[in-house]
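Late entry, magnesium ion complex.
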Amino acid sequence: MFVDHVKVFVKGGDGGDGMVSFRREKYIANGGPSGGDGGKGADVIFIVDEGLRTLMDFRYQRHFKADRGEHGQSKNMHGRSGKHMIVKVPPGTVVKDAETETIIADLVEHGQQAVIARGGRGGRGNSRFVTPQNTAPELSEKGEPGVSKDIVLELKVLADVGLVGFPSVGKSTLLSVVSSAKPKIADYHFTTLVPNLGMIETDDHRTFVMADLPGLIEGAHEGIGLGHQFLRHIERTRVIVHVIDMSGLEGREPFEDYQTINKELEQYNMRLTERPQIIVANKMDMPDAQENLEIFKEALGDEEIQVFPISALTRTGLDPLLYAILDLLETTPEFPMLTDADEEEASNSVLYKHETTGPDFIISRDDDGAFMLSGYTLERLFQMTDFNFDQSVRKFSRQMRGMGIDEALRERGAKNGDIVRIMSYEFEFLE
Ligand SMILES: Nc1nc2c(ncn2[C@@H]2O[C@H](COP(=O)(O)OP(=O)(O)OP(=O)(O)O)[C@@H](O)[C@H]2O)c(=O)[nH]1
Ligand SMILES: [Mg+2]
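Prediction complete; structure with ligand written out below:
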C-alpha cells in the first residue's frame, strides 16, 4: 500500500489578555474595576472533504496558525474570540503527533471533524478578581497560549484508476509519462510485480491516482500469473483503463486480448464489470498499429466504449485520454466494496482526544546549580501571568505554593537565596 506522508505545523490562536482598568465616572472618586476578559484563541480544526483524494495541497501550505483572541478592554468589554481555522483533508487521513507518534485523529467520513490544535482561553480581566478583601484588584491574566505542535498527516492512497492488460502492453510506460512515478519498464513479461501508484495533476489542478497493475493472463482469476493477487486493487478503483497493444508484435489479436482480460475480471468478481472502462490502444507508433485498430474497432461493433489511440513511447494522444478519465471519475460514484475486515476497521475507528499535559511541574538543575522548573501546567500559568503587576506576581507565587512546588524545592535542597528559573524568568527562593 502506498502511503502519502506530509509534516505540517499547527498552532491554535493565543487567548487575548485580560485587562486591568477602573471606572472613571463623574462624582465617583474611585470607580470599581472594569477590565474585560480576553477573547478565546481560535482552534485549528480539520474536516473531511470527500472531494479530496490526496495530500497534494499540503505540499504548498505547511503552516496553519489560527487567529488569536482580542484583548479585553475597559468598561468590561470582552475581547472577541478568534475565528476557527478550518482545514480540509481527504477521507482516510490519519493525524499523528510528529514527536510522540501518537494518533491525534483518524478522519474517515465526510464531514467528520477534529480539533487538532486548541486555541488558548482568554485571560481574565481585573473585574473577575474582586474579593471582599480586594475590591480594587490590580491584577489580570494574560491569554493562554494556543497549543502548537508538529504533526504528520498520513493517507493510504487508493487508486482511482487501474491500468489493466496483458504483460508488456505498456501499462507502466503509460503511468511513467503521465505522472512522476518511476515504475520499472522492460520488454519482458511481468516486469511489474506489485502495483505502482502515480499521482496525476492536470493543468486545471484536478488530481487523481493511477495504478499500473501487474499484467493479467488467461486464468488470472484462478491464480495463474501474478495479477490475481492484485485484482483486489481493481476492486477499489472507480475507473478501469484497459491497455491494449495494437502493434500485434507479440502475435496476439488485440480484440481477443480485450475479451480475455474482460472475462478474467468478470470471473474474479462480477461486479468489476460495473466499473466504467476506457480502452487505450497503445503502441500506435508501430507500423501495423493503424490497421489493427481499424479491425479492432470493427470487432467492437456498437459497444459503447471510448477508444483512445496513443503512443506512450512518443507521448502522443495523452491529454484527451486524461480528460476523459477525469470526466468519468467525476460522474462515477464510489463502489462501496468493503470487505468484512474493512467494515470492522471503519466502524471501530475512533477519534482520539489528545492533550499534551504530563506532570504539572518538573524540577531539574541547571549547570550553574540553579533550580529549573518546567512542565505543562506550570509553564501555562507562567505565560498567563502579567509580571507588570505586583498582585499578579503574588498570585503566581500562591499558585506555585498550592501546587506543592515550594515544598518540592525544599526537599530537593533549595535554601534561602537560591536561584529558581522558569522559562525566561528568574527569582530567588525565599523561606
Ligand atoms: N513502440 C512502443 N513500445 C512501447 C510503447 N509503450 C511501451 N512500449 C514498450 O513495451 C515494453 C513493455 O512496457 P511496460 O511499460 O514495461 O509494459 P507493462 O504493461 O507494464 O508490462 P508488465 O509490467 O510486464 O505487465 C517496453 O519495452 C516498452 O518500452 C509504445 O507506445 N510504443
Ligand atoms: Mg509494468
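The pocket of magnesium ion (ligand 2) is lined by residues 171-172, 183, 191-192, 212 (CB under 6 Å). Will revisit in the morning.
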